Structures are given as structure tokens and as C-alpha cells.
């Protein structure tokens, strides 16, 4: 421990790495004594010690927890934390639609007519007109034959991938895929492989070597990666899946409403016919300011998932007000493309200004998500705390959420952010980073 009773950043990172390292499981011991008691305290759970260590380390460093902060108003471009208004870069309300009166009015009318629950799975007795209307809108955006809305975005991938892939199959995912896809692949009986982030040469070599060993092969990537703010070469992904006879699944959760001239996602951005992608997957909680997940693709795919996907068969149907919020938001995205233009202008400007000030944004495109990669865990949390004190709310993303030594601040941009909001954030970032001794551009 460094002087003053504080952990250095290297010491902190080493401590966290040791804490995350798996410990060999002890072989279960037989009950040898009559007074033996099973462990029932929740504090004995394997990762509970991790929570204690994190809290102790934060106390030693004088850091407040950035997690589960209480927002005291609707969190849009501005929010209120601890009684103070802050410019908010921690919410993915990309198009500023959360709280739009046209959406809230539709939600209120739906709740008055249909209540707040469909009270059963859609398979048994939970189908409502709003479900079909939302799914028709989603299918139209992707030029798909059909779509299917799930009550949970995270659970959509967990339900879909194991339903489609069997023990003789292969799931190949980008190394930086979202947790829900990785867990969906893990829960399936298929073999699992990853390829380095956006490295399609590596993917091609893997398919050339191993494709013939498997029955069905599913390739999964994202339209816009939420930690890095970049995306794949979709044209080449389509070419590879066609060449090797695979299915291609794209998680467009952060792409819909963000990418493309009219916000139709990575396919529009890349100039690719969306029908060339076999399975479109996304969530309703980003640009669509609601909650849930969706799949879009061929009718046969949707019919199969309706019949066999556990997250559809055994889960309650989406509440009508939730479906209506997403449906109206989708209509507004289509009707008001100027929102997409404003978001994209904000992203391009913010990314350019951050780079001009000497910060590392990695491979980010500047579309909706701009990471500021600090590297050191402690300084990342310190910088986020200092920015909050200056009225800028931005979330620090730390390992293992990102690779070691790549801790970052993740700025979510919105069409509702004004030039003044961006300038305030850029000024605070520059000054507080300098106060922490972080690299700044050389003059001249």
C-alpha cells in the first residue's frame, strides 16, 4: 500500500485481478458430525467478498460509488442528482424521446384501456393488438417478413440462441459481444468460439478451417458496440456468411435510431439490404424509450420462436403500455429524421473535440457513443466523480466490463443535448483531466 494509507492504481488493479481470479472449488465434504450446519448466510456466497473489497478500496481512496445513483427527475439530456441539476451523459435516450408527450399520452390511454399487465403468456391468453402493431413496425424497419417482441431485452438472446442451436452446431461471436449474447451462446448446447473484435480476417480463417465440422453455424456481431462506439464491416460479414453457409445475427440495440441517414440502423449505415441479415436482434430500451427485446427476420424464424423459445412460451406477455411506448417512438423516428441528424451532428462534433484535446477515443465512430479511454481504474473513477461535482454525469466503465488497463468514461450523446451542454462537458473534462495529470495535447 502506498503512503497515506491509499492504494496506488497498480495496487488496486492487482487486488481486483486477484479477487476476480477463480479459486479452485473444494470437494464437498460428507456430513461427519451431528452438529454440522449447511452454510445459509448469503455472506458466504463466493463473490460476496468481492463486494466487501470494492467498498473497502473505495473508502481508502475517498471515492463515492458511481453505481445505482438516485435520479430525482426524468433523466434526459439533463437530470437531477442529490438535489442538483446535471448534464446527463449516462442515459441512452439517443433521440430525446423519453417523456415525449405523444408517447406518454399513448401510454396513458393504453393503460386506461388495457391495464398494466396482460396477465399471462402470449401463447396462452396474452395476445393483444398492440403486440402485432409494434412487431409490424419493427419488421418494416428491417424489411423483414415478421418480427417478435419479448418482454425482456437481455432474456431475448438467452431464449433465442439456445432455441436455434443444437449440440452439433457452432456459435461464433465477436469477442466484445454484449453479455446477453455470450450467455445465450453459453446456455446453448452448441460449441462456442469468439473472434477478435471486428477482425473479420480471423473470422474468415476460423470458418475456412472449421465450418465443415459443424451442422448449423451462427455468426453474431453488433451494429454499434456499446463500450467502444464502433461497429463491424457489415458488407463483409454478409459475404462471409453467404460463402460459408452460416446464419448471421446482428444485435442492433444501439444502432436503431442512431446509425443510418434515417436511423434504421447498421444496414442503412453500411448500405446493405437488411434482408441479407438472417436474424435482427435488438432492445426497446434505447432509442425506443421502452423496455423489452425483439427479433426480426423470416416468417419461419418468428413462427419457430413463438412456438419454442422459452422467453416467449413461459414468460408473461409485454404490457400493452410498454408496447405502445415503443410503437409510437418507432413511428416518430421514421417521421422525424431530423432527430437522427441532430444526434449524429452532436456525436461527430463531440468526438472531434475530445480527440483535439488529446484524449483517446479508441475506434469510436462518434455515433451516439464516445468513450474517453483513461486506462487507469482509479483515475477513471476520480475523473467521473470530479465531473459530477462540476455538473456533468458520465459513467465510468471499469474492468472486467472492459479489458484490463482500458477503463473509460462512456459518453452517451443525445439529440436533446445542446451546444452549451457539449461545451460544458468538454471544458470540465479538459480541466479535471489536467488536474489529475492525465495526458493533454502538446501545444504547437
What does this structure look like?
The chain is an alpha/beta fold. The protein contains 16 helices and 13 strands. The chain has a seven-stranded mixed sheet with strand order 3-9-8-7-6-4-5, with helices on both faces.
Write the layout of secondary structure elements.
Elements: H1 9-20, H2 48-61, E1 78-81, E2 84-88, H3 101-114, H4 122-126, H5 129-141, E3 146-150, H6 153-164, E4 170-174, H7 179-187, E5 191-195, H8 200-210, E6 217-222, H9 234-244, E7 247-251, H10 266-270, E8 279-283, E9 293-297, H11 299-308, H12 310-313, H13 320-335, H14 338-356, E10 369-375, H15 377-389, E11 392-393, E12 395-397, E13 407-412, H16 419-435
Parallel strand pairs: 2-11, 4-5, 4-6, 6-7, 7-8
Antiparallel strand pairs: 1-2, 3-9, 8-9, 10-13, 12-13
Helix pairs in contact: 1-2, 3-13, 5-13, 6-7, 8-9
Give the structure's gist in a few sentences.
The protein is an alpha/beta fold. It has helices at residues 9-20, 48-61, 101-114, 122-126, 129-141, 153-164, 179-187, 200-210, 234-244, 266-270, 299-308, 310-313, 320-335, 338-356, 377-389, 419-435; strands spanning 78-81, 84-88, 146-150, 170-174, 191-195, 217-222, 247-251, 279-283, 293-297, 369-375, 392-393, 395-397, 407-412.
Amino acid at each position: 500500500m502506498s503512503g497515506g494509507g491509499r492504494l496506488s492504481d497498480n495496487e488496486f488493479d492487482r487486488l481486483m485481478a486477484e479477487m476476480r481470479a477463480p479459486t479452485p472449488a473444494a470437494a464437498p465434504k460428507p456430513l461427519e458430525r451431528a452438529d454440522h450446519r449447511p452454510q445459509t448466510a448469503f455472506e458466504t456466497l463466493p463473490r460476496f467478498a468481492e463486494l466487501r473489497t470494492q467498498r473497502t478500496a473505495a473508502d481508502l481512496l475517498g471515492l463515492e460509488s458511481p453505481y445505482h445513483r438516485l435520479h430525482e427527475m426524468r433523466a434526459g439530456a439533463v437530470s437531477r442528482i442529490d438535489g442538483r441539476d446535471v448534464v446527463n451523459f449516462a442515459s441512452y435516450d439517443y433521440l430525446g424521446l423519453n417523456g415525449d408527450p405523444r408517447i406518454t399520452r399513448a401510454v396513458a390511454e393504453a393503460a386506461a384501456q388495457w391495464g398494466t399487465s396482460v396477465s399471462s403468456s402470449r401463447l396462452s391468453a396474452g395476445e393483444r393488438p398492440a403486440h402485432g402493431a409494434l412487431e409490424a413496425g419493427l419488421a418494416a424497419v428491417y424489411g423483414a417478413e415478421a418480427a417478435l417482441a419479448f418482454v425482456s431485452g437481455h432474456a431475448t438472446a438467452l431464449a433465442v440462441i439456445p432455441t436455434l442451436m443444437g449440440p452439433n452446431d457452432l456459435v461464433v461471436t465477436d469477442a466484445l459481444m454484449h453479455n446477453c449474447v455470450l450467455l445465450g451462446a453459453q446456455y446453448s448446447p452448441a460449441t462456442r468460439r469468439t473472434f477478435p473484435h471486428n477482425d473479420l480476417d480471423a473470422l474468415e480463417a476460423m470458418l475456412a478451417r472449421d465450418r465443415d465440422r459443424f451442422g448449423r453455424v451462427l455468426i453474431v456481431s453488433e451494429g454499434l458496440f456499446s463500450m467502444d462506439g464502433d461497429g463491424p464491416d457489415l458488407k463483409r460479414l454478409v459475404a462471409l456468411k453467404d460463402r460459408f453457409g452460416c446464419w448471421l445475427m446482428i444485435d442492433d440495440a444501439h444502432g436503431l435510431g442512431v446509425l443510418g441517414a434515417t436511423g434504421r440502423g447498421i444496414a442503412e449505415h453500411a448500405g446493405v439490404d437488411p434482408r441479407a441479415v438472417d436474424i435482427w436482434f435488438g432492445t426497446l430500451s434505447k432509442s425506443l424509450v421502452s423496455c423489452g427485446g425483439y427479433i426480426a427476420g423470416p416468417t419461419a424464424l418468428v413462427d419457430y420462436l413463438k412456438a419454442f423459445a422459452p422467453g416467449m412460451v413461459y414468460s408473461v406477455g409485454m404490457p400493452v403500455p410498454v408496447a405502445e411506448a415503443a410503437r409510437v417512438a418507432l413511428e416518430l423516428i421514421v417521421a422525424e429524421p431530423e432527430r437522427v441528424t441532430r444526434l449524429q451532428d452532436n456525436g461527430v462534433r463531440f468526438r472531434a473535440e475530445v480527440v483535439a484535446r488529446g484524449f483517446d477515443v479508441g475506434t469510436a465512430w462518434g455515433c451516439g457513443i464516445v468513450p474517453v479511454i483513461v486506462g487507469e481504474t482509479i483515475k477513471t473513477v476520480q475523473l467521473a466523480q470530479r465531473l459530477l461535482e462540476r455538473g456533468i454525469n458520465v459513467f465510468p466503465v471499469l474492468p472486467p466490463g472492459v479489458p484490463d488497463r482500458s477503463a473509460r468514461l462512456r459518453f452517451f450523446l443525445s439529440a436533446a443535448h445542446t451546444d452549451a451542454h457539449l461545451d460544458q462537458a468538454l471544458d470540465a473534462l479538459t480541466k479535471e483531466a489536467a488536474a489529475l495529470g492525465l495526458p493533454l495535447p502538446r501545444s504547437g
